[in-house]
User: Fold this.
Amino acid sequence: MTTTYTTAVTADNLGPLTPAALQVVLALAGGKAHGYGIMGFVSELTDGAVQLGPGTLYRTLARLATDGLVEEIPERHEDAPHDSRRRYYQLTELGWRVAAKEAELLERLVEAAANAGLTSRSKRADTA
Assistant:
């Protein structure tokens, strides 16, 4: 089922990203990438704790593209025939704005967790 929007998608009216969408956006914030590269980035970033499977990855990319956050870009390497099947993606301007808004939200959440003594950078008063 495809969602039809009655208003344009903006960084202000798009809700928080799903974990998979955030991971894909983080991967693409480093520059254009193909699916296998995105999966590798997520695996490395999470020390293997998160493995984006192809189904999750490509559904997420399709959703992000529908929302206007990522776009497929032409990328050809004539000297490498296997690359002709790869699809490369990059963040759009809207994708960058949404990523920045999401990062600000995450900063506030991490700060709250630290203030509550839930991170390695903080100590809880009752355990001191």
About this structure: The chain is about 45% helix and 10% strand. The beta strands are 33-34, 70-73, 88-91. The longest helix spans residues 93-115. The chain has one domain: 19-118.
